[in-house]
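Q: Predict the assembly, please.
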Amino acid sequence: TQLLEQSPQFLSIQEGENLTVYCNSSSVFSSLQWYRQEPGEGPVLLVTVVTGGEVKKLKRLTFQFGDARKDSSLHITAAQPGDTGLYLCAGFSNSGYALNFGKGTSLLVTP
Amino acid sequence: EAGVVQSPRYKIIEKKQPVAFWCNPISGHNTLYWYRQNLGQGPELLIRYENEEAVDDSQLPKDRFSAERLKGVDSTLKIQPAELGDSAVYLCASSLGTRRPQAFFGQGTRLTVV
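A: Predicted assembly structure:
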């Protein structure tokens, strides 16, 4: 199993602040996905990054895949209370079928 | 379109008792996953099905856990006997059988073993 390490584990910020969370591995992934999970719900896909160096934007969220495809970051600009949740990165094995998750970053945005 | 449906949402059982979880994936999705998620942690894959075939069950504790996916649609995950450490949320997800698919998750079953 290819391991994904996420940091920080917990993050508590005030509304309007910017933040970055990280997903790192010693393994190369064919692609990475980011999910957000709210309490009592299953994870929901935010984005899939495939190409090394790729940057994708989703409103105030910016996702980047490392050049070597071993790491990824999620940057949130002007965080809102609605951004609160558990952010999970997940990587596909070389086969492209097995999806393995990191332990997540728990984000709390207070008004 | 209906999403992934899991039942029950919550289950409380005494240790050493059996328990079963049920999952109905999105229609047409041939890949089905069962994950276990401990509080504040990421989901851990237990088993992955391609149609009715279990193609990855290396993380399934086979001494007490079993799963089946009859006719390649619905799936059940069973624990017998349950232990205190099995308390967790059990998530089911499904996807189309393509490379790098989008996995759609159900709401999960929260199991508490007392």
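Chain A touches chain B at residues 1, 6, 30-31, 33, 40-45, 48, 50, 86, 88, 90, 92, 95-104, 106 (CB under 8 Å). The mean pLDDT of chain A is 92.
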